[in-house]
Amino acid sequence: MNATAPKTNSGTPSRAEGRGRILIVDDEEVIASTLQEFLQSERFEVAVAFDAPSALALAESLEPDLVLCDVQLPGQDGLELLERLLRVRPETLVIMITAYATVENAVSAFQRGAHDYLMKPVIFDELLAKIDRLMSYRRLLLENQALRRQLHGSEASDPLVGDSPPMQRVKALIRKVGPTRSNVLITGESGTGKELVARALHQLGPDPDSAFLAVNSAAIPHDLLENQLFGHVRGAFTGADRDHAGLFVAAGSGTVFLDEIGELPLATQAKLLRAIENKEVLAVGANRSVSVAARVVAATNKDLAQEVAAGRFRADLYYRLNVVTIPLPPLRERREDIPALVQTLLARLVRHLGKRVDGIDNATIRGLMAAPWKGNVRELENALERAVILADGAILTPDDFPPGLISEGECVPESAGSDLRAALRDYERQHIQRVLVECSDDKREAARRLGLGLSSLYRKLEEFAIK
User: Fold this and answer.
1) Domain boundaries, the chain
2) Which residue in 306, 313, 405, 463 has the most C-beta neighbors within 10 A?
């Protein structure tokens, strides 16, 4: 049997705390069942998979804290499964197990995201020590995140306002990928809050006290962008009288946020790919690379897959950036969040502008919920700032907003009165009816646009008596 029993009388205390869920992936049933029996005796919840497809399915349903994965599996290499597991659940701890250990295998496992490496035959005391160490690290990480939320307040740790289904999905992705160092691609229209998502990822990351450095790829001339990202050495060009560290070096172990990544020139894309793949950058005029440790979070309002097909964006860079994608919904697809957004933005603007505005009337809220918002949250904030500056009274009304923004015909019906819940229900009914018309009554497409499951849409149709 390729497993070694635990030492007796080792003095190890009873491990009543810190237990969790473990997934064992090994095609040798005897070894898998032996490991399962031992770990269950240590009060872990344990599941077993004998191949890669079963492992991926269990990883999604069981949501294990830790995976023990054999390197040799039928049909798929265990290292390939490791990458796929971490794409499904990037926060999962993974220990690779093999009977044929080599330096190359160990290095490859760590490069692909493994947290530890174990030789067969498995010594149970060694396995348990590794599991306890990783679980302790995980608990400490979660406790630190909770402490930061208490110290900095909910606004600092969760700047994304809204609890609509689309925003709940965004926040769930942030919680999962935030604690990792994986690259993230944030997509969405201009003004949806992509930098807020990037900052939230950084705050939940392994080193939140490190630097968060942002650069807009479209706002800097192409000939200066490379210098901004990778730096230069003294004498590299006229006027370079001293060394300059680029953002990748200056960020340390923090985050480099590349906004409008679709505007990056092809030549700079090649150098960015090297920085991501090799974790090193070559400053302008330098003859030696410098190692870097920054995490890359990129954002775009373009369809990068189409840009790749058109030859304007490198396919290899796209795949490196697109480890995890977080799509941000436009404001018109989460209108139920508008009242909470208005309250948050208004409080901030009042503090910033130093003008007394106590609130906003119901008719105005209904009108704002019906407005098109082609510029998304940024447009909403600008409209509110204008309204606060120009308002004569302490309560904002439709007259304080740009002409034509709030149309009485599009407001939620006055039958809702002053009851906000009733107003939201009236608007929700109207919005569902409008989307159904736009989709020619295609329920599946309407559910996709509304960010609902098909069964949830049918429940709402029955609730609102929509035929």
Assistant:
1) 17-139, 158-329, 332-463
2) 313
**CA-based nearest residue to 100, from 67, 77, 124, 126:** 77
Instruction: Using the structure block, give the residue that is written with the tokens 């447009």.
Output: 379
CA–CA gap between residue 10 and residue 12 (Å, rounded)? 5
pLDDT digits over 232-290, tens only?
A: 888 877 776 777 788 898 888 899 999 999 999 998 999 999 999 989 988 888 888 88
Overall fold of domain 332-463: Helicase, Ruva Protein; domain 3 (1.10.8)
How far apart (Å, rounded) are the C-alpha atoms in residues 156 and 214? 18
- 80-114: b or e for each residue (b if 16 or more CB lie within 10 Å)? ebbeebbeebbbbbbbbbbeebeeebbebbeebbb
CB-based burial label for 150 (10 Å; 0-12, 13-18, 19+): exposed
Q: How far is residue 312's CA from residue 144's CA, in Å, rounded to a whole number?
A: 42
Strands 45-49 and 21-25 turn out to be parallel
Spatial neighbors of 130 by CB under 8 A, at least 6 apart, are 95, 116, 118
Domain 17-139 has CATH 3.40.50.620: no
What's the maximum distance between 2 C-alpha atoms anywhere in the chain? 83
